[in-house]
Amino acid sequence: MTIRVLVIDDSATMRALLLSRLSGEAGIEVVGAAANAVEGRNLIKRLNPDVVTLDIEMPGMNGLDFLEKIMTLRPTPVIIVSGATTKGAEVTARALMLGAVACCSKADITVDRSGGDALPDLIHEAAQVRFSGARQTRDGGAMASREVARGGAARPALIAIGASTGGIEALQTLLRGFPADCPPTAIVQHVNARFVPAIANSLNAICDAEVVVAEPDMPMHPGRVYIAPGDHRHMRIGGTATPCIKLRTGDPVAGHLPSVDVLLQSAAQTVGARAAGAVLTGMGCDGAQGLLAMARAGAKTIAQDEATSIVFGMPRAAISLGAARVVAPIERIADHLLAGGAA
Predict the structure, then answer these.
(1) Are 259 and 119 within 8 A, CB to CB?
(2) Quick one: which of 146, 222, 224, 330 has the most CB atoms within 10 Å?
(3) 306 has a pLDDT exceeding 60
């Protein structure tokens, strides 16, 4: 099946570059191009594209407002094609929290396809996204999680989480349920490294706990959430009495660097039954083997359910292996993680 793509960018040069970059890709057809949100809205209605690439720093209607309208009125897989500036990264992070499924830096458009976040690869992934009627950001569920978390139930010593496509929106919902004194939490989210600092800042703004980008040998403390920098280094849990972050180069695992499998397997080895782990929405199978290792070590293991997953690939793989002791909607996963202990 040919993936029909609509390009929305105010720069004629960038529109031409995107058309040139994508025209030779098997299975992809650029069916239209728009210079602003108004043109984009009309073409979305007329062409019904499978995937939209969107530059959100455009004149006229604010790109974030336009994205929010798309996701509310006509949910469509949107890939943000953003500038590499700090401002561009911050806006892109907000767009991912509004429901964009992926992001790509304009600086990467002319780079060869050796990188896992090359635009054609992202388009093929985005075309597999299917939106359900329920959106993931649900304040009611998040508040319920927070009340349970403060109810005095035993908590795990450490939490490890992996996510990919749709993961930023899922993490937004999940972390709203984390209290300020949550267990130390490590997250691998498949995303372009350029956007990780801005994503961490955006999540930090909506979370009672402190969200930071992980650094080598950083000790892990309660009340902190550590996001892998995404810079072609695996993130592991190390240490003895006090867990700490270990960042190491290496080969991709399950097709990814950093890999969710590597993080979860290290949590199983280092913390064992005192840990809790979750695999959230995402393409492929990364995290399934790691979650299985955690389950075998006696940890609480959770997979996001199909109804609230933007892409059910990673959770489905974990469930198929028997790695997930609990399958839950995203708004309830904080409850299960914070309760700790094997199911």
Answers:
(1) no
(2) 330
(3) yes
